[in-house]
Design goal:
Blueprint (H helix, E strand, L loop, with lengths): L11 H6 L2 E3 L6 E3 L37 H11 L4 H12 L1 H11 L1 E3 L5 H14 L5 E5 L6 E4 L5 E5 H6 L2 H16 L3 H14 L10 H9 L2 H24 L2 H13 L8 H14 L5 H10 L7 H14 L1 H7 L2
Parallel strand pairs: 4-6
Antiparallel strand pairs: 1-2, 3-4, 5-6
Helix pairs in contact: 2-10, 3-9, 5-7, 5-10, 7-10, 7-11, 8-10, 10-13, 10-14, 11-14, 12-14
The structure holds zinc ion (2 copies).
Length: 329
């Protein structure tokens, strides 16, 4: 659905005079001091740093342009299980989309152009860049540093307050863009099923009378294992989507550093952190890959290790694929 464009006009003459800068992300026209330097002021609307660099918006981005091969492979394995789609549909119908929505409407703050407007502006930037219809975004008071996207008919994005508090504006854009990436890459239905299965794993199946048969089938047919294995790999695709929005690999790596280091992140040396990611990239044993993923699932981690994610992003940049997409007309 086309959205109304900002009324920012061409401001090249003003820029030349040094008085106005049009935000490269959201298009807002910002008054700046005559001696303005790139990145020393933030946009009044989306709060992202102002600069005169261009920001690419991908008109017709295909998910296969960036989806990680591990994601595609794991999805193929999952889809090859007989009865997978009908079982997951039954599972989701049993819980229902309304239950997911109602629980957020009741417990989380809905982000709108008036409520937390800079977060909403960042959501619109991510959606405009990837070419996705703007979904509902909620911020939930939660000390766990996390975010997720779910839904059946209509996706919703939920970001925990701890994440927004810890990250700067560009890093927050990276997290929102990662979630929008799940929508663009058509992950939402399977991702919701994966979350549901994880949540149900903590509840005694015997008590879930209406859904117990379908859950038993999902576990016994190997669907839950394959689904969770895929869900971790899907994260790697969405980190790429986040890079396509922030258009700065350092922003992605710094976000991961904060996810890895928690409140301790301010004391971590970024250069050494990158070195660690490169070390990981060089030394990691591909033969142990399957065991590694299995361990991740067993440990109940919803997202793969941040160091691995950084190493995967660095690898993608170095492969030239990212630059190819950025240069594509
Ligand atoms: Zn802006
Ligand atoms: Zn994710």
């Amino acid at each position: 659905m086309p959205r109304k464009k900002d009324d920012a006009t061409d401001n090249s003459a003003d820029v030349a005079k040094g008085h106005f800068v049009k935000c490269r992300y959201c298009g807002q026209k910002n008054a700046v001091k005559a001696d303005y330097q790139a990145r020393d002021a933030n946009c009044g609307k989306c709060k992202l740093p102002l600069s005169n660099e261009p920001h690419k918006k991908f008109g017709a981005l295909n998910k296969h342009d960036y989806v990680h091969p591990e994601d595609s492979q794991a999805l193929k394995t999952l889809k090859a299980i007989p009865g997978v789609d009908s079982a997951l549909k039954k599972l989701l119908a049993w819980t229902g989309e309304s239950a997911i929505r109602v629980s957020f409407m009741a417990s989380a703050v809905r982000v709108t152009p008036k409520q937390c407007p800079d977060l909403h502006a960042k959501l619109v930037v991510a959606c405009d860049t990837l070419g996705v219809e703007v979904p509902d975004l909620y911020v939930q008071q939660n000390p766990l540093v996390n975010a997720f996207t779910g839904g059946v008919e209509k996706p919703i994005i939920v970001i925990h307050s701890a994440l927004v508090e810890r990250l700067n504006d560009e890093e927050t854009l990276a997290v929102i863009a990662h979630e929008v990436g799940h929508i663009h890459a058509e992950h939402v239905l399977y991702l919701t099923a994966a979350r549901l299965i994880e949540a149900l794993a903590n509840i005694s199946v015997a008590r879930l009378v209406p859904g117990s048969e379908i859950i038993k089938f999902i576990v016994s047919a190997g669907i839950s294992g394959a689904l969770l294995a895929w869900a971790r790999r899907a994260e790697l695709s969405c980190d790429r989507a986040a890079l396509l929005v922030t258009q700065d690999a350092d922003v992605i790596a710094r976000t991961m550093m904060k996810l890895a280091g928690g409140t301790f992140a301010s004391k971590i040396d970024y250069g050494l952190f990158l070195e660690q990611a490169r070390d990981f990239e060089e030394n990691y044993d591909k033969n142990k890959l399957d065991k590694f993923w299995a361990d991740l699932i067993n440990a109940g981690m919803t997202h793969p290790f941040p160091i691995w994610r950084v190493s995967e992003i660095l690898k993608w940049v170095e492969s030239g694929q990212y630059t190819g997409l950025m240069e594509r007309k």
